[in-house]
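ok so for the tutorial part 2 we go from a plain amino acid sequence to predicted structure tokens. step 1 is just haveing the sequence, like this:
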Amino acid sequence: MKKYIKPISLSLIIAFGFASCETDDDGFDNDLNDLGGYATLVDNSISRFDRSSDLNIKLFTGEGVSVETVEIVQDGSVIGQATLTGDNTATFNSSILGDYTFPDEDGVDQETGSYPIDIKTTYSNGNVTSDDFSVAVNKAISLEDNPSETTMDSLSSVELGYDVSTFSAGVDAVTLELKKNSDGEYMDSGADLSTDGGSVVLNETDYEDLDLAVNDTLYYRFTANSGSLMDAVSSQLVITPKAFQNSNSVTLSKDAGMNQLNLQTGTIAANGTENSDIRYMTPTGFEVIDGSDASFVKADDSFDIENADVLSTKAAFEDGSIITSATNLENGDVFIFKDTREIEDEDGEVETKTFYGVFKVGNVTSVNGDVVSFDIEYSDGF
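step 2 — the prediction. this is what the tokens look like for a chain of 382 residues:
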């Protein structure tokens, strides 16, 4: 659990200024010489859980001058008196600040905000200073820069990070809840979470009980507890289709000079060219070339080509019957294919990936009643 850092450097700067009393244009020096002292708030940031924390004030006094009282003023009224603790310091308890609700311009209470205060200090020389500060009240739990979307095949490995920060209050427990879509109900994730902050991978939770699918949204909520106090933060993760990375439009011809296709490159080549995957087959069809890693299935009427992505195409392929050739093709016929390839990643490393794609027959061209070519549009990805 993070703790708020006290701005000691500011105190040191002010102290240094007070020590340099010969500088005529130093405002702090003038206050020290003319009034006898100055106060600064050391602890100016707390969490919603810090309802009873002692906040420190640093006091600076001139030679022969001492502090007699330190009062905390809010909206012109004294709300408490600080306790002098020696070594030119004083403390006051955060419980005097208010009820930790912060109305916005519309009167709606917000969880975070700040309390403007004045530190009224009375010195032994009879002078009084009033130094204005504010105490910021922040969330006790917050989210890290978590992803906002993922695909189904990456969902299990998504990592959700959270931070826990208080000034002095302890945190008893942190829980994670999950729900499917906005109209779902939150359920406990089953994850064991640290009260110091950290992260959780979804495969460490019971997220599979939600039966999520593409275009669903996973809502999640982290909640921290401190005694009877609770603080929560939530966000969401959209499950998007896994888009195809490649698309090509080609024409496969009966002509031996352009009757082969390389699915990876989209290259049309002459009969016998190496590294091609399919070739034209008379009268109107294609066949897989020996040595190719490509395989096909015929899509059935339930396959949604308009909304197809890599994962839905993979599922349809695995449910189909593999074929090595197809003939009597017509405009609108749809096939699904699988192709294993070696590709180079961004670091120049060669990897073997399995691509899944959708392959649609377009215009079929005939001359004197004989089919001479047909168009193909296809897309694939891994």
